[in-house]
Each structure stands twice: as structure tokens, then as C-alpha cells.
Amino acid sequence: MLIAKLKGNFLGVMLLICLYSSAVQAQTKEEEKIKAATTVLNDFNEMQENIPAQLLNISKGVIIIPKMINAGLMLGGKYGRGLAMVKKENGEWSDPVFITITGGSIGPQIGVQAVDLVLVFKSSKTLMEIGKGSFTLGGDLSVAAGPMGRSSSAQTDYKLEAEVYSYSRSKGLFAGITLNGAALAIDNKANNDFYDNWADANTTFKSSNVSSKPVDDLRARLDEFN
Question: 81: closest CA among 193, 165, 190, 217?
């Protein structure tokens, strides 16, 4: 009886250890995604042409998707996992909300391409409501290739009429890329893995309370762009 009891306790402890280990590994995976997003911003900053300061100063949200995959031969597809952040009224960046982007496209395209993608939002309203359902770029949201230039003065005459501006950094061979028709949606699994008490995107954007080095580093990098 004693041996059976000890054996049962041992198995119970081992199960708890395995569950804890799985949770830690899942959270670490999302932390790596946050680090990758910071790397994307660092890479963008090293480019000769960059996201204009004017646009970043008026931006209310960003989506960063490291290594979004584009593949196709006339008919194309895309898939990526990244994160969204909103600039709050006090100017601070919110906690990250993990998202996915999926879609297809038709046009002159061939090859496989890994794209570091940054979407700059002029309004936070769309991102605040993203938890209610997916949004289609070019359909629900107007998206345009963003203006280039490090200094804000270089973009004074740019009208900035689109809701979302896209910037990409490509690796590999590809001819032709479009975001029209791509859908943005919440990555519930990633958010549940990263947050102990994940509620929804709106709550996470409004009540930032995560303080970890990867998140703090990403916030600091976004601040440096303003």
C-alpha cells in the first residue's frame, strides 16, 4: 500500500513538472517572437531608406511579422505569425497581442520569399477591435506601400490618406508582392501560452502590465523610432 501510494505521488509530481515545463517552453517561444520583432526594427533602422519619422509620430499602432512566407507560381499564398501593439493616450506602447496573417494572391509572382513585414496604423481603433474578428487588408482596411525617408521633412507633402502603411524587407527570390486580401486575426494559442490570464486583445491593449526584458526592449526600440 505504501509503495503504491508513493508511486502515485511520484507520478503526480512528474506530471506537474511536465506540465510546468511545457508552459515555460510555450512562453519562451513567444518571447523569441518578441525578440525577433525587435530584430526586424533594428534591421529596418539600418536600411538606407527608413520609415519616416512623420508617419511614426502620428502612428497609433503597429504590427510586426518576422519572416512572413510568400510562395507562389501565378497563384500565391502567404502566412505569418507576429504581434500587434497600440500606442496609448500617454504615448506608451501596450503589451503585445499575438496575431496571424494569412491569404492568397493572383498575379505575376514566382518563388518563395521570407518577408519581414511592418504595418503602421494611423488609428488604434482597428487594432482595438481586432478581437471581434479578422480584418482583410485592402478590403476592410485600406493599405498602401509606405513612403520612405528618414527625415519627416522629406515627407511633408505626402498625404498619408491610407489607414495602414506597409514596409517589408525581403530575403530570397520573388517577383511581385501584395497584401490585398490578406487577413489579420488573433493568435489565441500564442496569447494563451504567453499570458497567465489571457482575456482578449482589447483588454491587453488597455491594461499593460507585462514587464519582461523582451517586451521592454521592444517598447524601447519603438520609442527610438519616434
Answer: 190
